[in-house]
Amino acid sequence: MTTASEYAGLQSVIWVGTHLDLLDQRLLPEEVLYLPLETSESVWDAIKHLAVRGAPAIGIAAAYGVVLGSRHAEGSVEAWLQTVNETADYLATSRPTAVNLFWALDRMKARAAQLAAEGLSLEGCKQALLDDAIAIQSEDEETCRLIGVHALELFEDGMGVLTHCNAGGLATAKYGTALAPFYLAQERGIALKVFADETRPVLQGARLTAFELQQAGVDVTLICDNMAGMVMSKGWINAVIVGTDRVAANGDVANKIGTYSVAVLAKAHGIPFYVACPLSTIDLNTPSGDLIPIEERHAEEITEGFGKRTAPQGVKVFNPAFDVTPNEYVTAIITEKGIVRPPFNVNLKKLFE
Ligand code: MRU
């Protein structure tokens, strides 16, 4: 049996010294293929087209994308700094909702400016910026482990827990956010029964969450999204835990489309609804959820997902990738610094003091 500390899982982003190896998550669970990426354009493309996805993993990939896009800059440190800033601004156009993308890019820009001001050589600047991308990745691993430790306080042996989308090791450096407590529970001999929504239309729950939990030997049952209410009504679900792409200052939470419906169902059944995320996902600059930009994706994800036409040609389609769960549905937000409860507009701020 794999334990959390031994859990190798599949690493979604690997810096191999000369380039980035990126796990193509679109091919899972059938095929494990790493894309060798050498340019910031290929990283942009991988983020845009979901080869890498999940808020923290997008941020990590983008940080390496800045390194790839600026490593051939020649001449002066000033010219390199300008290339870093341009590459970061370009990568920021890949997807709009997950704030970790902008958080990681801002951190890389700030670090580059600091290195340039310190008077390092051009090669010294390039190496130190790469070191910071590596640090973003390794910090995320520890952050996720801590989220798991705190979240586990909320779960008891024998509980049934529902999750939506994939907020696991594949979406982060390791362990995940919402899935981290499941790996830690397994390590500590706490038996949890995980229910994974398949998560239409791209099936991150079926293809990724069911895959990574099954690989690790966690007890996971896959259900269609429209079964969540029925499963709750049977009394099989004691808690819901999901990840998030952005938490607004008032505690409204953007996450994969369908999360809001799950939250409403949880409230109707008196089931706690937990959100797990690192501090880098909390955006105090966005006052409320209605101000979070929501990505709309291609109609084909719904009309002919995975190559099979399932709707008439030319039908009108609405395909938002995310929805916003208002804070009144959120029981608690679990971060690496601990469990935050309402009032979120007061308590989220305290995390940053
Ligand atoms: O479109 P995706 O697959 O990038 O959406 C991912 C999610 O919604 C995750 O739940 C979220 O990013 C949290 S990942 C720890």
Short précis:
The protein has eleven helices and 14 strands.
Quick tags:
seven-stranded mixed β-sheet, 11 helices, binds 5-S-methyl-1-O-phosphono-5-thio-D-ribulose, four-stranded mixed β-sheet, EC 5.3.1.23, alpha/beta, Four Helix Bundle (Hemerythrin (Met), subunit A), 2 domains, disordered N terminus, 353 residues, 39% helix, Rossmann fold, IF_2B-like_C, 14 strands
Explain the overall architecture.
With about 350 residues, the protein is an alpha/beta fold. It has 2 domains: about 15-145, Four Helix Bundle (Hemerythrin (Met), subunit A); about 155-350, 3-Layer(aba) Sandwich (Rossmann fold), CATH 3.40.50.10470. The chain has helices at about 40-50, 55-70, 75-90, 100-115, 120-150, 180-185, 205-215, 230-235, 260-270, 300-305, 345-350; strands spanning about 15, 20-25, 35, 160-165, 195, 220-225, 240, 245-250, 255, 275, 280-285, 320-325, 330-335, 340. The chain is globular and about 65 Å long. It starts with 12 loop residues before the first strand and ends with a helix. Residues about 1-5 have low confidence and may be disordered. 5-S-methyl-1-O-phosphono-5-thio-D-ribulose binds near residues 54, 172, 204 and 245.
Strand arrangement within the widest β-sheet reads 6-5-4-7-10-13-14
- What Rg is obtained from the alpha carbons, in whole angstroms? 20 Å
CATH architect. name of the largest domain: 3-Layer(aba) Sandwich
For the largest beta-sheet, the strand count, sense and barrel status come to: 7 strands, mixed
Share of helix among residues? 25-40%
Mean pLDDT, all residues: 96
Bound molecules: 5-S-methyl-1-O-phosphono-5-thio-D-ribulose
What number of domains? 2
CATH topology-level fold name of the largest domain: Rossmann fold
What's the N-to-C terminus distance?
41 Å
CATH class of the largest domain: Alpha Beta
State the shape.
Answer: globular
Structural class assignment: alpha/beta
